[in-house]
What does this fold into?
Amino acid sequence: MNNFANTLLAALRQMDAEANTTFKNSPTGLNFYGGYFRPTLKRPPTETSWTRRLKEILTTVGYPTKAEVHYPGSKRKCDNVVTMPDGSLLWLENKGAWKQYWIDYGNTGIYRSYLFHPLKPGLMKKTHTVPHDLQKLATLKKPDAHRVGYLLIGFDSVNAPMQDDVCELAALAKLDAARWMAFTTSWSDGYRPGQCIHVWLWTSEVA
It folds into this structure.
């Protein structure tokens, strides 16, 4: 699992480096990867662009990967399904958390809602949140899946870090339980002075 985690984290750094263009005079990078990956769209989505590019990169480096795969017996989709070297399947969901963006726009409630709803009271009701994604992963059983993974990509700043928020999320969602393996990396956003990129990956065997 360590080899896969290192490969995935390296792929994200590669994606940030390659996205050195602008979209409507705004920098792209991993933060706004949709503007780099699908520049012909009026409002290019970033999370699905991550999904599609990870399919390409991981497949190229020896982890055959599918994108946007239906959960068994459901219309809901998982971002990526990765075939590991031993033939086992890892189902991987990804989510972005743009703390500094929502600070700049004066609405951190949206950031917190996508990170915590419904685990914390008083937040906006959102459907595609981190806890909801984890609930989807929890429905998987063998032989459809052997491992599950959750990839959280966060964008904050030196003045408004998000590490404490993620520690709180891990406690509420029980991502700090013994069955989960955790991997993380961080680097400065080269396109946005004073801002940072953080990546958290949690993986667990399917019960």
About this structure: Residues 2-18 form the longest helix (17 residues). Residues 2-205 form one domain. Residues 14 and 81 are 20 Å apart (CA to CA).
